[in-house]
Amino acid sequence: MSTADHSDQLHSQAEIASLAGVSRATITQWRRAPGFPSSEGGGGSELFRRADVLAWLDARPIPRRLLQGDPEGTTFGARARRSRVRGTPPAADAPRPETPETQPDPRTADHVRELMGQLCDRVRGAGSRVDYVNLLVSLHFLRRSGGDHWNDIVQMSATGKGSDGSTALLKHIAAAVDEKLRLLGMRPAMHEALVRLEPRTYGDLRHVVRLVGELGPEAFVLMLDEYELLAGLDSGEFFTPRAVARVMVLIAEENRAADAPMGIYDPYARGGELLAAATAWSAQQGTAPRRMRVRGLTHGRDTAPLATMNLTLLGARPSVRVSSGAPPWTASGAFSAEQFDLVLSNPPFNMSDSTGEPRAEGGWPYGSPPQGNDNLAYVQHVLSTLREGGAAAVIMPNKAGNSANRSEKRIRQAMVERGVVKAVLALPDRLFSHTSVPVSVWFLVHPSQACDEIAFIDGRQVGTPVRGKRALQDDDVQALLDAYRGCLHPGDNEHNPAVPTAVVAKESIRERDWSLSPVDHIDTHKPCRSTSEAAHREALTILELRTQQAWDADATAAWALEQVEQQGALLDAVGWECVSLSDLCTIQAGPSYSLLKKHITTDGGVRLLYPQNLREGRLAELSDDRHVTEARARSLERFLLRPEDIVCVRTGAMGPPALVRDVGADWLMSANVIRLRMDDEHRARVHPGYLAAYLGRPESVAWVRDRATATGAPSISAAALGNQPVLLPPYPEQQRVVAILDALAAQARAHIHLAEAVTHTRAAVAERLMTSDLDAATRLAGGRNS
User: Are strands 606-609 and 10-11 parallel, antiparallel or unpaired?
Assistant: First the structure.
């Protein structure tokens, strides 16, 4: 099937005019008519979703004077379906389904390591490492999806030269992949990232194209790993580990009544990893992915294209929508009216105690969730989208299983009594990037398959320490699956002490206050030497890793300080200049509170940046961060942040500013912050890292405090801030300063992590020294007493 046949693809006004056989002026008039589809948000051009346009055109007959050989009564929709947009790729351009192996080919892994080595810095220049990974992903997608695009790229890479050739090739790659994304229903997303790259030589870029051309199909997931590692995804966007996704698919499939899932859905798709796991598993069972409905809703505008490309390479025809800000359970939520055989999700967590009253809006068959906490709202939405015989797996924070909130307790009670909870699996901590929140997977079934018992599985002790996190290996995945199957068929599997289980009747769950937490139903707290020894070994492994990381950071910092001693501090004033801050940057205060107050929400959307998010020169996410709706953020687009912006406190306690890196990009400023954005003509004159460090000096912070108006709260105006003097050395000296300061900052962070590892090791050592096998100790004590 051609990507052009995809009903979810996006069209420009010109393409709609070509489809319908009318002028662009007619489309402009149609847009004023009632019910004409609205354009998709974001990006620089207006695009319209094909299915919505066709549905509107189906109700509009073609006037006689405009019939072009069409039978009388033909609608514009019928004409459009017979038309082909100029430039649409033929059916032969359809991607070939990929079936990556669990273990990548060594050559592919070697090539990816080479691509992420020195080549990364040589090609990205002023661009970020994330921009560079986007280049690799785009090239791999174009190569594996077939068509003429890849051949054109190879030919251009062989004949081009110089910086102009690099720019032309990068623009060609971006245009090619963005066109394919548009035909797959995804807004163009790669041009802005790829044009930021500045290859040192054309040969470096040519070498990247050659290496990507030799990669196997499994390279895409390796690139996704690099993307997650570098992008600094926040808690709402980080990916679900592939091993966890496999566990969710395998156990959920045990609970489905049908032979093969024909509809898969994820209402919070992140990077599409759960959809990819389900698609790959279905393909292994003999189901053609292109026959399946693969649907996903994501809040990650940057990760949505990656999900679409990955699923397309797996042979699916995905429809991944970027959320408009409306929760998926509302009438305006995408796919809210569809039902599916398999639903998988890792929605955002709310870890605070739910004290709010039940929300009034919405239909909640198991009880209205509390305001300000969507944990059990997502669970109910997942259940509502299940087709009869379908099954689901949803990751939930452990807090959701035994919270004391009355509304949540009533919801759990209703779910247990109606038999829609099949099993709950507690997972190890530190599985996810950037968070150590302990979670469980809730396995759910359609009410038609109501069950009288719930299987509880404690998998918190499985997994292997890897780089300070915990990873599930193939044996761990199989152990968890075997433990679940052992609950269903107690006589078929040997007991695995590493994965304790319990099958609990409804009455026992009621006695435990309707708790769905495995720790409330499985006695795992007996002191056991084998368990404490395993924890001790793991703690030592992490300690060794953190110690090595601290040594590496120490060596880098020592080298940086040695450069200061050898080369001297920046005492040579030749080439220095003193300029006002306003001569280097555009200074923009945040929007007034009146523009925000009616649009602030806790149901997702665009994150608001407040002074408390500024932490030691970086932006930090807080558990109580507030958001505004996507629609409101679009109307205030000039207040959105971009990488390399510098954010200062405008009103409140004045402190060092923060440099926006990957975390903080696309956040919206609140009224109490102020943004510095480098003017384009000065980007070769001043390094944003240097400017942020200079403004973070105690003397610079004191300068701002002295000029903040002494009203109820200190406040600095954009005009006053713009008068701050800045000393600028030549650009190479600025780069040297930034490298030295970054090395010292990395050293500080490494020692913080080392201190945490030492504390954890101390507790593990104490447990090992003070623990014995309780049953053996009891028997020994009984023998002595007798």
Answer: unpaired
472 alpha carbon, distance to own chain's centre: 20
Digit-coded pLDDT (tens) for 200-212:
999 999 999 999 9
Cα dihedral 141, 146, 148, 154, rounded to 10, equals 60
Least confident of 8-12, 77-81, 98-102, 545-549: 98-102
pLDDT tens-digit readout, 114-141:
888 888 888 988 888 888 889 999 999 9
Q: Is 425:252 a contact under the CB 8 Å cutoff?
A: no
What is the rounded distance in angstroms from the CA atom of residue 659 to the CA atom of residue 678?
12
Per-residue pLDDT averaged across 320-338, rounded? 76
Angle 129-144/304-313 helices, nearest 10 degrees? Answer: 30
The pTM (predicted TM-score) of the whole model is 0.61
Question: What phi, psi does 434 have (nearest 5°)?
Answer: 65, 10
CA angle 530, 534, 538 (to 5 degrees): 170
What are 370-382's pLDDT values in tens digits?
A: 887 889 999 999 9
User: Could you tell me if 492 and 513 are in contact, meaning their C-beta atoms sit under 8 angstroms apart?
Assistant: no
Q: DSSP letters along 209-222, please?
A: HHHHHT--TTHHHH
Q: Where are the beta strands (DSSP E) in 636-758?
A: 646-649, 658-659, 668-669, 673-678, 725-728
CB atoms within 10 A of CB 635: 14
Tell me how far apart the alpha carbons of residues 604 and 377 are, in angstroms, rounded to a whole number.
13
483-523 pLDDT, tens per residue? Answer: 999 998 876 555 555 789 999 999 999 999 999 999 999 87
Cβ burial, residue 431 (10 Å; 0-12/13-18/19+): buried
Q: Distance between CA 285 and CA 562 in Å, rounded?
A: 60
Q: What residue type is 95 in one-letter code?
A: P
Integer Cα distance of 407 and 418 in angstroms: 17
| Residue 22 in this model has a pLDDT that exceeds 70 | yes
Among 98-102, 214-218, 442-446, name the most confident range: 442-446
Shortest CA distance to 605 belongs to which of 229, 250, 248, 348? 348
Sign of CA dihedral 282, 283, 284, 287: positive
Q: What is 505-531 written as a DSSP string?
A: EHHHHHHTTT---GGGTS---S--HHH
Identify residue 116 by its one-letter amino acid code.
M
DSSP states along 223-284: HHHHHHHHHT--TTTPPPPHHHHHHHHHHHHHT-SSSS-SEEEETT-TTSHHHHHHHHHHHH
Q: How far apart are CA 350 and CA 325, in angstroms?
A: 17
The region, left, alpha or beta by phi > 0 then psi within -120 to 50, assigned to residue 415 is alpha
CA distances, 465 to each of 244, 470, 554, 757 (Å): 15, 4, 23, 13
φ/ψ (deg, to 5) at 293 = -90, 115
Is residue 232 pLDDT above 90, yes or no?
no
Q: Is residue 409 within 8 Å of residue 514, measured between CB atoms?
A: yes
Q: What percent of the chain has pLDDT over 90?
A: 34
Query: What's the alpha-carbon Rg for the chain, to the nearest Å?
Result: 29
d(CA 207, CA 210): 5
Give the list of residues 6+ apart from residue 588 with CB closer than 8 angstroms, or none.
Answer: 638, 639, 669, 674, 675, 677, 718
